[in-house]
Amino acid sequence: MASNVCVANVDFPIPYKTIQEANSHLIEKLPQEHDALIATLPLEPFLERPFSFDQPYRLYKGVWMSEINIRGTLVMQQHFKSCRTDIFLASFPKSGTTWSKAMIFATLTRTNNSLNQHSLNTHNPHQCVPYMEVEFVTGRSQILEVIPSPRVMNTHLPYSLLPHSITESSCRIVYVWRDPKDVIVSMWYFAQKILGGADKMVTFDQLYERFYQGLNSYGPVWNHIFGYWEECKRRPEKIIFLKYEHILQEPVKYAKQLAHFMGCPYSETEENHGVVEQIVELCSFKTMKDFDVNKYGNLPTSENINVTNASFFKKDEAGDWKNHMTREMAERLDTITKEKFNGSGLQI
Ligand code: A3P
After folding, report:
1. If you measure from the C-alpha of residue 25 to the centroid of ligand 1, how many angstroms do you get, rounded to a whole number?
2. 285 CB less than 6 Å from ligand 1?
3. In a domain? residue 317
4. Any atom of ligand 1 within 6 Å of the Cβ of 96
5. Which one of 118, 156, 246, 260 is the catalytic residue?
6. Is residue 192 one of the residues assigned to a domain?
7. Cis peptide preceding 93, ω within 30 of 0
8. Is residue 8 part of a domain?
9. Average pLDDT per run of 10 along the chain, which is 348 residues long?
10. What protein family does this chain belong to (predicted)?
11. Is the CB of 314 under 6 A from ligand 1?
């Protein structure tokens, strides 16, 4: 692999899709060197696989992941070199990743007059900000190296599995999390869209039980949230810890916090000209879901599954769990969440 080069700062990060297309010559052979190790890892006890498709989950250092994601993680841990200017969006799946990608990308690419023709009008947020594990497992890791600085990348890895180069450098991490009860519901609908219907997957109750046992992609969810929270308390200049429900309530406040954290705070002139509100509006659910690219486009994935861009936009609400869980199910999940967060200062 080529050594990492930090390219000079530019004002306008480019959608990753554009960089990918211009650099297809950098694609390498799929890495196989970790297959022997992966084959020794504990296998999931369930037969039904609503999320890992043709790949079973295995337990790697306390984290359940599909084999393909473990392979991506191992290659990434071995080869990824972080730059000081990098910004990583970390999240547990279905916790607000798409929205956060849009907010980060729009914030870094803002100008007073470009928002009407912004790349987000024609690119899904996942085409603007790469999902690192996938890039590493599809031989495209060298393309990550040619993204102009500041690079923005996304990972679903827990803090404990991040490459040392990320944890040890002075790059920044934006972490977004969400009430685990709504994460399950979001997962349930997302899986149905990808698999082509509820009859193709486990029941909601089975999915709930698996989730409760931590057995879902990147689970258990509590360790994921907790790992970033602990590090955020230790190094608040490195990690900003955002909650989906809070951003929903006060998007402008969090848009400003995010810009400040990323080192590009809004100027007084920008604030007076309503730029923060314009960014929030551009990235809002209402605006984004109606862009053609998000209605009709698709994303290629590492598992050769057709994921539509529309599947990332269901609602922009908190509390959908009330429509899917019994009171007992919700209480049971709240109890384990409180136990796991006990004494940390974290609250659902
Ligand atoms: P629901 O499925 O609960 O409706 P992720 O991006 O991590 O996969 O998270 C998906 C969740 O974020 C979905 O929630 C989706 O509807 C919601 N979402 C996507 N874009 C959003 C936006 N711009 N604003 C608010 N929520 C958004």
Report:
1. 34
2. yes
3. yes
4. yes
5. 156
6. yes
7. no
8. no
9. 38 82 88 88 72 73 92 94 96 98 94 75 96 92 93 97 96 98 95 78 88 93 97 96 98 98 95 95 97 92 74 96 97 97 92
10. Belongs to the sulfotransferase 1 family.
11. yes
Q: How far is the CA of 74 from the centre of ligand 1 (A)?
A: 28
CATH number assigned to the domain comprising residue 71: 3.40.50.300
Give 171 Cα–ligand 1 centroid separation in angstroms: 26
Report d(CA 49, CA 207) in Å as an integer: 9
Look at residues 127, 120, 109, 117 and name the one whose alpha carbon lies nearest to residue 10.
109
The C-alpha atoms of residue 50 and residue 71 are separated, in whole angstroms, by 20
Domain count, the chain: 1
Residue 325 domain flag: yes
Distance 186 CA to ligand 1 centre (A): 8
**Residue 214 sits in which domain range?**
16-341
Q: Which atom from ligand 1 is nearest to the alpha carbon of 93?
A: 7
Measured CA to CA in angstroms, residue 72 lies from 26, 86, 340 at distances of 17, 19, 28
Cβ–ligand 1 distance for 183 under 6 Å, the answer no
Identify the DSSP state of 184: H
pLDDT of residue 54: 54
d(CA 63, CA 308): 27
Distance CA 49, CA 324 (A): 20
Whole-number pLDDT of residue 8: 34
